[in-house]
Amino acid sequence: MNKITLCATIMSCLALIQGADACTGITLKAKDNSVVVARTIDWSGTEMNNIYTIVPRGHNQQSLLPDGKSGGLDFTALYGYVGMAVEQPEFVVDGTNEAGLSAALFYFPRYGEYKPYNEDDQDISLADFQVVSWILSRFATIDQVKSAINDVRIINIDPTASTVHWRITDVTGRQVVMEIVDGIPHFYENEIGVLTNSPGFEWQMTNLNNYVNLHPGGAGPTEFGDIDLRAFGSGSGFLGLPGDFTPPSRFVRASFLKTYSLPQDNAKSTVMQAFHILNNFDVPLGVQFAVGKAPNNMPSATQWTVATDLTNRTIYYHTMYNRSIRSIEMDKIDFANVQFQYHPLDVTKQETITPVKID
User: Fold this and answer.
1) Domain limits for position 319
2) pLDDT, tens digit, for every residue of 14-46?
3) Is-contact 171 35, C-beta < 8 A?
4) N or C terminus of the chain with fewer C-beta within 10 Å?
5) What number of other Cβ atoms are within 10 A of residue 269's Cβ?
6) Measured in whole angstroms, how far is the alpha carbon of residue 44 from the centre of its chain?
7) Predicted TM-score of the model (pTM)
8) Each residue of 97-119: b (16+ CB within 10 Å) or e?
9) Is the preceding omega at residue 284 within 30 degrees of 0, hence cis?
């Protein structure tokens, strides 16, 4: 593919990606201290080319640049990793490396701002949709990422595109959110273990205080003059929990659901718990558009959901076409010798349905 064709393809991909405005991420820890990171990936505008990629140690990549130019940051993988990518294998949006470091990007419109691309910094320029690949290739800990971030200049391939922010988690369960505002990277310790989209992480944490009245279990009965007010059913302590699909509401809802869900004994049970929690964030196609204005008829605007057991290096996912959970066991991959490769998340775009046998 020549440079002009490649540039056109990339710009087209980025135009599609701008619909990714409803992703929700949570982090859970099992009783045995296993760490699970999970998230939805949401595009409502069109079906994306959703793939997973396996990257060996020693694999070399070079960042894409604006206007069809090549020759951005060149980096070679010190660690092998598995990534979930969209449209192009370079565009890894969620992944984990063999050291147990996880990185993921989330759409962050109107609140982030990168420094403009400067040709004088070409050799250290890194496209925002390749930051996850760079992190997974080069680092084993959050502190290593923080130490290296000022050695690169993160840019937009398409200057008109929006920005993203990142969730970075290590095998201990420590997690940070990285946001670039006014061209400056900021790291926030993420003790709540939740991330959505705009506004910024600090605002989202402050906004949680608006829901100080919420609690698990029931509310009341309450004396109300001469009568008692009683809840109609269980769970009334969560009356007022926002149920819409805006990023602030999803942040609040995810924070309460994951915080008060029962800790599970081990990693596998925690992975299943993560999928159940994230079922609350599946976006039915159509709700993000005016009546009759939905651009397509995909099964869902939530195109896939992934949950990663960092402790045991196992990635689980299901898609809008097939809710059957599939897994990638990283400890069975020889990252020193495996070939670079990528594959579609769905071999067959059809639900796995098992008929019940009746004797």
Assistant:
1) 3-199+263-344
2) 555 544 568 999 999 999 999 999 999 998 888
3) yes
4) C
5) 18
6) 16
7) 0.93
8) bbbbbbbbbbbbeebbebeebee
9) no
